[in-house]
């Protein structure tokens, strides 16, 4: 111990207590847990913003997260249905907001981080939400047309060809593995195992902390390797472990697009999907699930590929995707059709 430190803190003297805010620590631990399980910064940021917004609503009523449960529940009931633009809030949004806040309380109670006796969100009346009500698969003819266009463009030189080759490989991997957009964005060269024409991708941290592996179909593996050789050269063995699989190729002020050469973020991949297929990236996952079912895969097989923890979740997922289909549609059209 230095002389100066000895003078200010004599040996055997008790250490001064470090001031801390138990509530702030509980929130930080909860967010760290959420990020650790999903590996998604976007998820953590969404949870943090939602809880902060709820605390603002509580503050307007001179309350905070540790206030009496019934009072917190009353604020939560009103807050979950609030809209900044005076529009009706969808039931799914209300349910999501309440689920996020409830997750914090459940975590704090389980870890005994705060002087709580109940989860106040359990006192809130939650709306009935149809599972996966917005699930929608893509029209296969539209997808094939878009992919054919990309394959043709990928034969070009320069940036246009590079973008097409990257996007073709990205979309085909997404459509044939069912990976979430955050899982695709997290892929690096270390996660690619090649053995001749055989390629296996490893998602190190899928939702729920799972490790997921996908051995690609030969032609999908060929598209991926063709893209990587095009961008990195003939020799891939010397690539750095953290080399991007889907690098940014084009600069600009687009949100979610990083620096050229760095990996596309989840938001950047969503931009690619929107531009190439005019849809949300989760529709690719819906399309994967529906195609698996149509090809005769069992629900348990689809569950394993999607990474769902519960078989019932996969069942609801598939049920919603099939709701628009009517096996009798052609017969009805003939019955009620016009002559001529």
Quick synopsis:
By secondary structure, the protein is mainly alpha-helical. The protein has 2 domains: 22-123, DNA polymerase, domain 1 (Orthogonal Bundle); 140-322, hpI Integrase, Chain A. It is built from 14 helices and 3 strands.
Please characterize this protein's 3D structure:
- The protein is mainly alpha-helical and 340 residues long.
- It folds into 2 domains: 22-123, DNA polymerase, domain 1 (Orthogonal Bundle), CATH 1.10.150; 140-322, hpI Integrase, Chain A (Orthogonal Bundle).
- Helices cover 54% and strands 4% of the residues.
- It contains 14 helices and 3 strands.
- It has helices at residues 3-8, 22-38, 41-60, 69-79, 91-111, 140-153, 158-177, 181-186, 218-232, 266-277, 282-294, 299-306, 311-322, 329-335, and strands at residues 192-195, 198-203, 212-215.
- Helix 2 (22-38) runs antiparallel to helix 3 and helix 7 (158-177) packs antiparallel against helix 9 (218-232).
- It is globular.
- The N and C termini lie far apart (101 Å).
- 26% of the residues are buried.
How many domains? The number is 2
Helix/strand order: HHHHHHHHEEEHHHHHH
Query: What's the rounded overall pLDDT mean?
Result: 81
> For the record, what is the CATH homologous superfamily label of the largest domain?
Intergrase catalytic core
Count, helices: 14
> From the 3D coordinates, which CATH architecture of the largest domain would you assign?
Orthogonal Bundle
Would you report the number of β strands? Answer: 3
The main β sheet shows up as:
3 strands, antiparallel
CA radius of gyration is 25 Å
The computed structural class is: mainly alpha
Instruction: List low-pLDDT spans.
Output: 1-9
Report, as a whole number of angstroms, the end-to-end distance. Answer: 101 Å
